[in-house]
Amino acid sequence: MIVRQFTCRGTISSHLCAHLRKPHDSRNMARPSSDLAAFRKVFSDAQNIAIITGAGVSAESGVPTFRGAGGYWRKWEAQRPSPGIPPVWEFYHYRREVMLTKNPNPAHLVIAECEERLGKQGRTVTVITQNIDELHRRAGTKNLLEIHGK
User: Is 148 one of the catalytic residues?
Assistant: First the structure.
């Protein structure tokens, strides 16, 4: 359990951690599957659903990924220490300008529609993304966690 993994390293007393559910033994966990019927069953029974997205979901909108062909790191040398503030600002200005010209694609729109439809059924959809392009929000996603960085 991820909560236990992060919180039991000294921030929560060992007494409390003892009451947290033990992590599953991976040998007893279900193997990954492509069984669509099984997925539908799990999905239809789920009350809380997390949708996790990354750069690929926005690439179809024309937002460059960092490492792909035509990506940000092809134009800018990310691994080299910055020679000064102007190049850093130039890089971020370029990113802002690119993102402002892009629109949500069908994937963003379907995710927002999924959140809305399931919300009417009393179910919760949370979208977790490392993207900072605002396309999920502009598509209508409301329960959004934009997480990026280390």
Answer: yes
Spatial CB neighbours of 82, under 8 Å, sequence gap ≥ 6: 88
40 shares a domain with 22: no
Answer yes or no: do 105 and 133 share one domain.
yes
pTM exceeds 0.70, yes or no: no
Long-range Cβ contacts of 110-114 (<8 Å, 24+ apart)? 111/51, 111/53, 111/136, 111/139, 111/141, 112/136, 112/139, 112/140, 112/141, 113/140, 114/51
Supply the range of the domain harboring residue 98.
Answer: 35-146
Does residue 18 sit in the same domain as residue 80? Answer: no
pLDDT in tens, 48-104: 999 999 988 998 998 877 665 655 555 555 555 556 667 777 777 877 888 889 999
Distance of CA 39 to the CA centre of its chain: 20
Q: Active site residue: 15, 24, 136, 148, which one?
A: 148
In the prediction, which pLDDT does 61 show? 93
Give the CATH number for residue 123. Answer: 3.40.50.1220
Strand 124-129, strand 48-53: pairing: parallel
